[in-house]
Amino acid sequence: MNIFLPFQNNFLNKRFAIFLCFTLLLGKASSQDLKSDLPENNGMSSLRLSNIDSVFLGYVTNKKLPGAVILIARNGNITYHKSFGMSDLETQVPMTNDKIFRIASQTKALVSVGIMMLQEEGKLLLSDSLSRYIPEFEQSTVEEPVADGKNTKEEKQYRVVKAKRAITIRDLLTHTSGIGYGYGLASEQWKDADLQGWYFAHKKEPILESVKKLARLPMEKHPGESFVYGYSTDVLGALIEVVSGKTLDVFIKERILDPLGMNDTSFYLPIGKASRLSVVYNQKEDGLVRAPEKGEEFSQGQYLNGPRTSLSGGAGLLSTSKDYAIFLQMLLNNGKFNGKRILSRKSVELMTTNHLGGDYYKDVAFPWDFGTGFGLGFSITDDFGDRGVLGNDGEYGWGGAYHSSYFVNPEEQLVVVYFTQVVPISLDDHQKLKALVYQSIVD
């Protein structure tokens, strides 16, 4: 008989109890998401951040914006998260940090991540031809202008030719596929096919069926020759369905939203969250007017009541500022958040590197900003001196049709999310916000 057995058992039990407590504490810490912390603990000035309050309260007071939510995170901590104005002007519902917004093209980042995940699993390569998975694209065509000297400015004379090469998955990620939003020379054909503009919520057919129709229409440019903003990411959403065998909403939920704890992000809105959906407004000459309930692009959108059938990978998601910041923090953390690995560091590096203007996409330039390129789902600041605004090389971001935006700065360990709901709108708020955020960094 071992006379030391009771002592050993007691000692082991104590050690196990200590280990269990430590494990539980670690588990509790790892289950937490982005935490709030003082700006001064993260190299930012509370006093300087208050300039954001003054400017955005001014937009609200002057009826330029109905309301907005701004979230800033640095070093993985939320240093600023505030709401301004109203979520609903007519019923005087205040804007709050947990309001849900239609994020439109900010959906593109999540779908682009989904494609990279599939490449990591060996299910596709970015160099693959799209037609390998969606055969309807095997005979892609392109519209080309015809200058015969007889057509007027109102007439769109064009011919349809065979594409010079196949569309690749990489082309879709960089918006160099040549696929626009249906407003090119062959716009009448796209209109007849009910494929114009970014809005899909009214459609009663699955996204793959819409994409197959799109494949038969002439594209605006030859693949790889121009940056053309359009349905490329909607095509990627359909591609995810084909390759994964799951509908896009299920794939995004299971592979990205659930692991990251993004519980308020979805295609279409759960009925129980209807009161949290921020109202859309249209900017008019005499102020802001509540957008109509139905209609395409400039309406409230059928995100609550409607067919709830078409899953737009380019513009279909709804989210909160906190949820979207978590997604961006995952990217800033090189693909990992709270112990959950979504992407490898190398995939994130490829996504956040400029792909335009080199030997592969020769002479392809980003058309909207100086000093800017495009990666795999985001615009990339390639020369911030040439761009002429505060920031750094390597900053990446994008925005949505309802006037939301975001940017991430790896060098400054910075995530910024800005949500509001006004379309159409002309305002300098995005530029002002960027300047106000960067001037608050004091370390």
Task: State the helicity in percent bands.
Answer: 25-40%
> How many DSSP helices?
12
Main sheet makeup: 9 strands, mixed
Q: Just give the CATH class of the largest domain.
A: Alpha Beta
Instruction: Give the beta-strand count.
Output: 18
Task: Note the overall shape.
Answer: globular
- Count the domains: 2
Q: Can you say what the CATH homologous superfamily of the largest domain is?
A: DD-peptidase/beta-lactamase superfamily
Core attributes:
disordered N terminus, alpha+beta, Beta-lactamase, 443 residues, three-stranded antiparallel beta sheet
Secondary-structure blueprint:
Elements: H1 5-31, E1 35-36, H2 46-61, E2 67-74, E3 77-88, E4 93-94, E5 101-102, H3 107-120, E6 141-145, E7 158-162, H4 169-173, H5 187-192, H6 207-215, H7 232-244, H8 248-260, E8 266-267, E9 281-284, E10 287-290, E11 317-319, H9 321-332, E12 336-337, E13 340-341, H10 345-351, E14 372-374, E15 379-381, H11 384-387, E16 396-399, E17 405-409, E18 414-419, H12 429-439
Parallel strand pairs: 1-3
Antiparallel strand pairs: 2-3, 2-18, 3-4, 5-11, 6-7, 8-11, 9-10, 12-13, 14-15, 15-16, 16-17, 17-18
Helix pairs in contact: 2-12, 3-7
